[in-house]
Design a protein that fits this description.
The protein is of the alpha/beta class. It has one domain: 3-Layer(aba) Sandwich (Rossmann fold), CATH 3.40.50. Helices cover about 35% and strands about 20% of the residues. Strand 1 and strand 2 form a beta hairpin. Helix 2 crosses helix 3.
Length: about 250
């Protein structure tokens, strides 16, 4: 089981789960929250020390009142990496967390040795649109991210009785910092070609939230990046196919 701790960064208390052993791997969660210590975390912890913070303003971490954009959020996560003494390490970003991971890599490339982006938000798609989650309620949005209904049903116990409050609060935080423009930074695609770290971009062909063109942009812009497509998997590949996703990640990190 992971160890839970809190770390204070720039006056903000951040909740952190840590488990496993081996090289450090920072895992950044989606806009809907961390969802606890998932099967993906556990699978990756077999070969790595997995560090899974609740991002500032999400789940159990303090909400910084000053925070109004994802670039500043990525700076706080960078400070967290320093406070934890992670040193340069691999970073995995899931969905919205992929955007944050890309912001860290472009602003502070020395912190990131390898970059893994699964269904990353953060860049404006050339084709299609990042789904507007505010067209539906928060629980419907989570369900929409799954290609497999049974996999979604299996997640309903996460957060327990507090689930409606937690996911609504997480959505409010996303609105504060990622809504204008909606779920992307127009400048990031122009910064990606400067990255030197090896990168893997992963997308599920059943993803109805992030269009493939977002993954294509990241894979094309980052020098030497590889794109892997997971068949029959939606946006929540970490919850739908954790072993398959972990296999792609650990193979890349070898």
């Amino acid at each position: 089981m992971p160890q839970q701790s809190t770390v204070t960064v720039a006056g903000q208390v951040i909740d952190v789960l840590t488990g496993g052993s081996g090289p450090n791997l920072l895992v950044l969660h989606r806009d809907t929250g961390r969802f606890g210590w998932t099967a993906l975390h556990a699978a990756l912890a077999k070969t790595h020390t997995v560090i899974a913070p609740a991002l500032p303003g999400y789940d159990g971490s303090a909400r910084p009142e000053f925070l109004r954009n994802v670039t500043d959020l990525s700076a706080l996560v960078g400070y967290l990496m320093d406070e934890l003494g992670l040193g340069p390490c691999a970073v995995l970003g899931l969905g919205y967390g992929g955007w944050i991971a890309a912001e860290i890599a472009t602003r502070s490339p020395g912190r990131v040795t390898r970059l893994i982006l699964q269904a990353p938000m953060g860049t404006r798609p050339d084709e299609g649109l990042i789904f507007d989650q505010f067209l539906i309620d928060a629980e419907e949005y989570i369900a929409y991210g799954f290609a497999n209904k049974d996999a979604y049903e299996a997640t309903k116990g996460i957060y327990g009785e507090e689930r409606p409050r937690v996911i609504d609060s997480n959505r409010e935080m996303t609105t504060r910092i990622a809504w204008k423009p909606a779920m992307f930074n127009p400048g990031i695609r122009h910064l990606l070609p400067g990255l030197k770290s090896p990168a893997l971009v992963i997308w599920g062909d059943g993803d109805r939230i992030v269009p493939k063109s977002c993954a294509d942009i990241y894979a094309a812009a980052i020098p030497g990046a590889r794109l892997a497509v997971m068949p029959g998997v939606g946006h929540y590949a970490d919850l739908e196919a954790p072993d398959a996703l972990a296999g792609l990640i650990t193979d890349f990190l070898k």
